[in-house]
Design a protein that fits this description.
InterPro entries: CheY-like_superfamily, HDOD, RNase_Y/CdgJ, Sig_transdc_resp-reg_put, Sig_transdc_resp-reg_receiver
Organism: Rouxiella aceris
Pfam families: HDOD, Response_reg
Structural class: alpha/beta
Protein name: HDOD domain-containing protein
Helix content: 55-70%
Number of strands: 7
GO biological process, one term: phosphorelay signal transduction system
């Protein structure tokens, strides 16, 4: 695996190099003192992961990773920054998959690189890897996006209303969850619920992210995006009712089909293809995108297995089973009745179907 570290401070690179030498790995590591040097080295041999400092002269980390995204979209991009300026945060969010606050312990950084490299092994299809790697923006549902912007612009808005609105849209929720769970903001805390994510980031940071036109794709009228948002909200609300709480299950159900917001993958009928004979490509790509963005792995696992819950490591009816039922019912999909029977919950299906009907009525009001 090819890994590149970029920093204009030689002592920082030397420290990372020493840490790499002390661990057992098959990484081929290269070190560059500037963005221009990194690009020249990448032209000779692309990297699986590029880790760049943000603050460098002539070409900063965001500009470097923008070029990496455009030229080598399959490369996983990690940025380190001590910046607190809003404009710098926005530029990082638009080009990096993961964000790390400086100063950063070398072992922590290498653990993140190792997890990123493990993700790169999930897919061998360069078209899929490239499409997901290139994705830093997803289209929000136009009506939801407009209402969120209106609420954020109103000084008297209630944070709970804003959280509820953002939590109804997969694209907005995924981006907020990405930032809230980053090492830049989270400081080791895993966040599973959009309300907690907004509280953790602070309303001003959320406002900056949402209102910045470059963070999200233009909210153009797209009936498909609207339909996906409505079915995702229905699945999320149903998952909350089935599980009896907010957090993991509702969030995973909301994000389960997020790969379908990537236009080039949506056009490829990815619902029908399988990866490694284990799960549908749609579920796997959704999980890959969320993992790439650094969301908690229990959310990623529930998304990855939601179409075939029997493959989950958890053999009880837990988060994966809840997400499976909620997403299948919300999308008129096929339920794994054998799985429901084996986990002892098949008798609850009529109750869940009634929940679905009531949930649809409430959301339509």
């Amino acid at each position: 695996m090819q890994v590149m570290f970029v920093d204009d401070e030689s002592r920082v690179l030397s420290g990372i190099e020493r840490a790499v030498m002390m661990q057992e790995s098959d990484w081929e590591c290269r070190f560059a003192n500037s963005g221009h040097e990194a690009l020249m080295m990448l032209e000779e041999l692309p990297a699986d992961v590029v880790v760049s400092d943000m603050r460098m002269p002539f070409m900063d980390g965001a500009e470097l990773l923008t070029q990496v995204r455009n030229r080598w979209p399959a490369t996983i991009r990690i940025i380190l920054s001590g910046y607190s300026e809003p404009s710098a945060t926005l530029r990082m969010v638009d080009v990096a998959h993961r964000f790390v606050a400086k100063p950063c312990d070398s072992s922590t950084l290498l653990t993140m690189v190792a997890s990123a490299l493990a993700l790169r092994d999930m897919f061998q299809d360069p078209a899929v890897v490239g499409a997901v790697g290139r994705t830093s923006r997803l289209p929000a549902a136009p009506k939801v996006f407009s209402e969120v912007c209106r609420q954020l612009a109103n000084p008297g808005s209630d944070i709970r209303q804003i959280a509820e609105l953002i939590g109804s849209d997969p694209a907005l929720s995924a981006k907020i969850m990405q930032l809230a769970n980053s090492a830049y903001f989270a400081r080791g805390t895993l966040i599973h619920d959009i309300g907690n994510a907004i509280t953790h980031l602070g309303l001003e940071q959320v406002k900056l992210l949402v209102l910045a036109s470059q963070v999200f794709a233009d909210a153009k009228t797209d009936p498909y995006v609207d339909r996906l948002q409505r079915s995702a909200l229905l699945a999320s609300t149903l998952a909350a009712r089935i599980s009896g709480h907010q957090g993991l299950e509702p969030t995973a159900a909301l994000l389960a089909k997020i790969a379908l917001l990537i236009p080039e993958l949506r056009q490829a009928d990815i619902e029908e293809v399988t990866v490694l004979g284990e799960t549908s490509l749609q579920a796997a790509v959704s999980a890959y995108l969320l993992a790439l963005w650094g969301l908690p792995m229990d959310i990623v696992e529930a998304v990855a297995r939601h179409m075939q819950p029997s493959l989950s490591a958890d053999k009880d009816f837990g988060a994966t089973g809840t997400v499976h039922v909620a997403v299948a019912l919300a999308n008129h999909g096929v339920l794994d009745l054998d799985y429901l029977e084996k986990t002892g919950v098949l008798n609850k299906l009529p109750q869940w179907q009634n929940m679905l009907a009531h949930t649809q009525e409430n959301l339509d009001d």
